[in-house]
Design a protein that fits this description.
single chain, about 425 residues, alpha/beta, Aspartate Aminotransferase, domain 1, Aspartate Aminotransferase, domain 2, 2 domains, 7-stranded mixed beta sheet, 4-stranded mixed beta sheet, about 40% helix, globular, binds 4'-deoxy-4'-aminopyridoxal-5'-phosphate
Length: about 425
């Protein structure tokens, strides 16, 4: 047994590529020793030495109920004993799809996948099949997964500017246009370039991958109108936002209906489970009804689906959102005060259980250019100062702070103290 993160990481580097299964986990944006986690419990992460951290990384979003919530974990042996994966349709996935459609009526038909990446890839393929066209418009700073087209100019943890050397064929770029989020004039420029080739616009309706970014009034409706005027579709990527922003997701909150939607993360209660779906005429393109193929050995497996039911059981039965929202609002208000006391003009954003601020003075982030203007050195120093004080943040300024149902008022108070101490510490280092 190794009780020290750096020794474990040395072992990791010797056998896992780069020591990680996902590059952001290496902390490449903040330097220093990557965080190694031994276990999680509720709102807390523990390192291999047994030290406790208040966790705002929350596995990049899925853990709305925190780590290991008993409502999700109790009695799982019986579920496994009945079969973890079948390779056949089963009733539980039908019921789960019906339940999802109750909350997201735009998902008239859906197909389960294992990861969010597969869900978005499936939605893009079926949109192409339906329209008979190839081109996709997406937005800089929106992250949709790790498949070829999605990675180019993505935000969050992705760093793939050099397609040629990144294993992404140049040909992919022919069918891709990237526009500035919240900028319909830039969308029009990109659409003009694509001419009549547009199959779909894919967008995070509220962005969680360049910090928290809200769509400007009229932006999403403008995308839908422009896509439909060209006979193309709109895909809302709600992999982060569905269930984070309530049972009706971002689309319910904003009153905008896409043709296709992707969901994931929270849906599986920590297990891999995602889905894409939408208009039944579009989804009818999928085999066996139509020619377009997507599938997967573990897609809709009964174990993950059982977790999905448990997540919905929990969220439908209890009103958890108001309490999380109130706690996150208090955290955001306290951060605003701390920043004001130090004459730091950073915008602090809060929505539901998300809190976010960047080391950049001025108004909130509207697009990826704003996001990239944030001070990376200051954030890196802040990340490490917070970790020393027992707070685990995502090691990238493009991520947000996720609260869960398990974060308490005392956790928020401890976090505020740690932020005050960290801001003072990095100011003493001349960072801010
Ligand atoms: N879409 C969005 C909006 C995401 O945030 C992510 C993951 N961060 C994905 C898709 C990809 O999901 P996965 O990592 O499960 O493949």
């Amino acid at each position: 047994m190794i009780a020290n993160g750096s020794a474990i990481f040395a072992r990791a580097r010797a056998v896992l590529a780069g020591g990680v299964d996902s590059p952001v986990r290496s902390g490449w944006a903040v330097g220093g020793e990557p965080f190694v986690q031994a276990r999680g419990a509720g709102a807390y992460a523990y390192d291999p030495a047994g030290r406790r951290y208040i966790d705002y990384l929350m596995a990049y979003g899925p853990l709305l109920l925190g780590h290991g919530h008993p409502a999700l974990t109790q009695g799982l042996e019986a579920v496994l004993a009945a079969g973890a994966v079948f390779g056949s349709t089963h009733e539980s996935e039908i019921t789960l799809a019906e339940r999802i459609r109750t909350h997201l009526p735009s998902m008239e038909r859906l197909r389960f996948t294992t990861t969010g990446s597969e869900a978005v890839a499936g939605a893009i393929r079926v949109a192409r099949a339906f329209t008979g066209r190839d081109a996709i418009l997406k937005f800089a700073g929106n992250y949709h997964g790790h498949f070829d087209l999605a990675l180019l100019d993505a935000g969050a943890s992705a760093h793939t500017s050099d397609a040629a050397r990144s294993g992404i064929p140049r040909s992919v770029t022919r069918d891709l246009a990237v526009a500035r989020y919240n900028d319909l004039a830039d969308v029009d420029r990109a659409l003009d370039d694509l001419g009549d080739r547009l199959a779909a616009i894919v967008v995070e309706p509220i962005v969680g991958n360049m910090g928290l970014v809200f769509p400007r009034e009229g932006f999403l409706a403008g995308l839908i109108a422009r896509a439909h005027a060209r006979g193309a579709l709109v895909i809302f990527d709600e992999v982060i936002t569905w269930l984070r922003f309530g049972l009706a997701g971002a689309q319910g909150r904003l009153g905008c209906t896409p043709d296709l939607t992707t969901i994931g993360k929270i849906l599986g209660g920590g297990l891999p489970l995602a889905a894409f779906g939408g208009r039944s005429d579009v989804m009818a393109m999928l085999a066996p009804d139509g020619p377009c193929f997507t599938g997967g050995t573990h897609a809709g497996n009964p174990f993950s689906v059982a977790l999905g039911h448990r997540v919905l059981d929990f969220l439908e039965a209890r009103s958890v959102y108001a309490a999380m929202n109130a706690r996150a609002m208090r955290l955001a208000a306290a951060i605003r005060e701390l920043l004001a006391e130090r004459s730091l003009d950073y915008a602090v954003l809060h929505a539901e259980s998300i809190v976010d601020f960047k080391f950049r003075p001025g108004p909130p982030t509207m697009n990826y250019d704003d996001a990239r203007a944030a001070d990376k050195r200051a954030f890196a120093a802040f990340y490490h100062a917070m970790r020393e004080r027992g707070i685990l943040l995502a090691p990238s300024q493009n991520e947000v702070m996720f609260l869960s149902t398990e974060h308490t008022d005392a956790d928020v108070e401890a976090t505020v103290l740690a932020i005050a101490g960290s801001l003072d510490a990095i100011r003493a280092q001349g960072m801010i």
